[in-house]
Amino acid sequence: MKTQTAHRLATFGAISTAIAALLAACSSTPLPAQKADTPTAAPAQAAIDAAAGEPPNTPDFVASHTARPSQAPNPKAYRADAAAHLYALNKDRIYKGRMPPLLYAIGVLQVEVGRNGDVEKVNWMRAPNHAPEVVKEIERTVRAAAPFPVPARMGRVVYTDTWLWHKSGRFQLDTLTEGQD
């Protein structure tokens, strides 16, 4: 009986991980790009490295920070810039290390960022409806992080990322996840 239960839990964990990976692989269609005379795109890793400076996570900073430009040529590359931006503003809320096999919530959120880095729209592709407080907190976190990096090469962008939410209230984004046990 215990073996059957352990097997069911392992199967459920594997299926949940596979579904999360599938959802994370979904890509968004960019809005029509405006012509921009900008230099070639910096690699996505540069955006992650830029977050290493980790600006202070104070209300004054969050309310007054200015958007830096992103040279990402497409939504997938922009996603790394956006994730680094969110991590820099929420460093004390990021789950450190590998996530446990069973998470409290997983959500896939599509964010539309305007030419000034403003969040124009959020759209849940897969909302964690069993945890409405998580839905509200993720939306609040995204909106509070505006302005996002300005999508200089695209004019505006719609990108998608998967939020991995631990029961402690800490999270990782699939783009920058440290993996799962």
What descriptive keywords fit this protein?
globular; single chain; two-stranded parallel ribbon; signal; four-stranded antiparallel beta sheet; 181 residues; alpha+beta
Topology:
Layout: H1 2-24, H2 44-50, H3 59-64, E1 69-70, H4 75-89, E2 105-113, E3 119-126, H5 132-144, E4 150-151, E5 157-165, E6 171-173
Helix pairs in contact: 2-4
Can you put this structure into words, describing what you see?
- This protein has 181 residues and is of the alpha+beta class.
- The chain has one domain (2-27, 41-176).
- The chain has five helices and six strands; from the N terminus they run αααβαββαβββ.
- It has helices at 2-24, 44-50, 59-64, 75-89, 132-144; strands spanning 69-70, 105-113, 119-126, 150-151, 157-165, 171-173.
- Helix 2 runs parallel beside helix 4 (75-89).
- The two termini are 24 Å apart.
